[in-house]
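Quick one, T. Sequence first:
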Amino acid sequence: MALFPCMAACVVDGDSSDNYGTGLLEEGVAAPDFVIVSDSFPDGITLSMLRGRYVVLEFWASWCPDCQEATPDMVDMYNTFSSEDILFVGFSLDTDEEAWRSYINDNAMSWIQCCEFTSWKESAVAAAYNVKWIPTLYLIDKVGNVAFATVVLSEMRERLSLLYY
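C-alpha cells:
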C-alpha cells in the first residue's frame, strides 16, 4: 500500500443540497496536475506522469460520514477495476495524519493515497477540481483529460464497467 502525504453531508463553502454534484470540471478539459509524494515516491510524482492509463481520482476524508458510507463501495470498485490500465488515487482532505493513516489501514484502502494535511478551503488541489462535496470522483483519461466527474459512486462504477468489459 502506498500512503501519500498530500464535512455531515460533507459540503464546503455553504453550498446547499440544491446544487449537489454541480460545477465539477467538464469532460474533455485538461485535468489539473499536482504532485503526489509518499513513502513509495519520496521524490514525488505528478498526476501527468500517470498518463497512458485511466486514473480514478477520489476526493475524500476520514471524518466525512458520506465518505465513510462510501468506503466499502470504493474498496470493492478498486478490487474490481484496478489494473495496469486503471489506477486509483485517493486525495484526502484530512488534517490529522494519524486519523488518516488509521482509516486507510482499518479499511484496507490499498490504492495510492495522498493528503496535503491542510483544511479543505486551503487545498489548492481541491480548488482546482472544484470540489465542494465529498466524496467527489473524477475519471482522468489516458491523455490527461477529464473523462467523467461525479459525486455518485454507482455512476463511476457504471463508467468503469464500460472501460473494463
